[in-house]
Structure formats: C-alpha cells, structure tokens
Amino acid sequence: MLQVQNLEVVYDDVMLVLRGVSVAVPPGGIVALLGANGAGKTTLLRAITGLLDVHDGEVTKGSVTLDGEPVHHLRPAALVRRGICQVMEGRRIFAELTVEENLRIGGHTSPRTIKARMEDVLTLFPVLAERRRRTAGYLSGGEQQMLAMGRALMAEPRYLLLDEPSLGLAPRLVEQVRGLIVEINKRGTGVLLVEQNATMALSIAAHGYVLETGKVVLDKPADQLLADEDIREFYLGLTRESFRDVKHYKRRKRWLS
Ligand SMILES: Nc1ncnc2c1ncn2[C@@H]1O[C@H](COP(=O)(O)OP(=O)(O)O)[C@@H](O)[C@H]1O
Ligand SMILES: [Mg+2]
C-alpha cells in the first residue's frame, strides 16, 4: 500500500500548499486525484516521488509510506528502485533522442533486462514500436504521452503516478490513453491518476479524491463521485450541458420571459 498521511507541504519556506492531505493507493488499484488548477495535485505527486527539493518545496508534517515504511526522505532514484515512478505533466521526453533511447533511459537496470523490458513496452505501445528509431521530438502529442508512459514502465513500477496524461489530447487519443492505463493496471501496477478529465479518470478508478486548495474535500468510491449531481457540477465541472440540454434550457427561458 502506498499511503500519504496528513501531509503538509510548504514552498519557499512560507507558502503552505498542502494542508493535511491523506490519500491511499492499494497495490494493483487505480485511484483518481481530481481538482481544479492550483489545488495541489502536482505538489502531492512531487512529495511522493521525492521531487519537492528541486522546486524549493518541503514536507513539514505527515508522511508518505510504502508498505508501512516512511519513504518521503528518499531520493527520487531510490524511490524508483522501490517501485514508485511518475510521468510528469507535459510529457517530459528527450526531444533529440530516439524513441528507443528515451525508453532505455527509463530502464535503471542491466542491459539485458532493459532489452527485455523494451520489447515488452513496445508490445504494449505498437505506435512506438513502429517509430522506435524516430526522433522523439517529431512524435505527435499523443505519441509523446505514450512514450512518457512507456519510459516510466521500463522500471517495472509497482506504483505509477500519472500527472494529467490526457491534457491537450483529442478525444480519440484520450480514449487510447485510458485503455493503456487499464492495460498497465491489469499487469499488476497500482495507479494514482491525476486528471482534470474527471469522467475519464472516474470511469476506470475504484476510488477518487477531490483536492481543493490543498485539502481533500471528498474521498469516496469512484461510482459515488460520478453519480452525485452536486459533485458533478461543483467539483468536477461536469454539467449536464449536452447540446440537447442547452436547446431545452433556451426554449424554457423563452417561455418564462
Ligand atoms: N515551485 C513552486 N514554488 C512556489 N509555489 C508553487 C510551486 N509549485 C507550485 N506552487 C503553487 O502551489 C499551488 C499548487 O500547485 P500545483 O501542485 O501545481 O497544483 P495543480 O497540479 O493541482 O494544478 C499553486 O498555488 C501553485 O502556484
Ligand atoms: Mg498540476
């Protein structure tokens, strides 16, 4: 179990950004972390993967534990070895390197293991297999997202943290990324999925958290979050505004005025 307990994070010694956040990801589970821009989602992932230092951030209270053992003092590389990997927001791939070279960087093990892992990852992402010797910078947005995910999978993580993997992707590609997350999870990897696309995230997660200005304001099974109308409108920004609803609403307004 990957567990964040009562976590407080401060940036630049003064800015309190997470105020007592608790989140749990069971082994092999999918958990969604939702919330508006600036709520603290990326900060929470940084705290789990040891990347706060780089951003002048610090855990000032609480803990991150892996199977009960505190891990928030570990370096990022040590966390990768323990099985925690992150795909950062904005798909940080190495644009000048080829697809294969990008994947090799994610390996962290012996050359032989890396070769086997790469074949495995390329099976999971046929698009990348076709473009394995292509320069990564020339891949499309969706392909780059897949490369970033593939690179994280090279380390065979027990837990994969994804920061807004659907951001900026066309609906068809969002669907593809969604399918890949399901597939990765089927192979036994636990997933913490940070998303603005609440519908997508909750459709595959078992549990969801909604973060609001550094606090967890909702902590419920995903189906309950999806079903609740207030939650849909106020927290997830999912209004019932299909085109038909809008037309209906306008007609009603005309009648009333
Ligand atoms: N390196 C940083 N230094 C100072 N403040 C930061 C830093 N990174 C993020 N913040 C602030 O922390 C808050 C949460 O940011 P973030 O975790 O990126 O939110 P989210 O990922 O939910 O959009 C925001 O107010 C943001 O401006
Ligand atoms: Mg973010």
UniProtKB/TrEMBL annotation:
Gene Ontology biological process terms in this record: L-amino acid transport
Classification via SMART domains: AAA
InterPro entries per record: AAA+_ATPase (IPR003593), ABC_transporter-like_ATP-bd (IPR003439), ABC_transporter-like_CS (IPR017871), BCAA_Transport_ATP-bd_LivF (IPR052156), P-loop_NTPase (IPR027417)
GO molecular function: ATP binding; ATP hydrolysis activity; branched-chain amino acid transmembrane transporter activity
Keyword match ATP-binding: yes
PROSITE patterns: ABC_TRANSPORTER_1, ABC_TRANSPORTER_2
Keywords, in A-Z order: Amino-acid transport, ATP-binding, Nucleotide-binding, Transport
Any matching Pfam family: ABC_tran
Domain annotation ABC transporter: ranges: 2-238
Family according to the record: Belongs to the ABC transporter superfamily.
Protein's UniProt name: ABC transporter ATP-binding protein
Biological source species: Phytohabitans rumicis
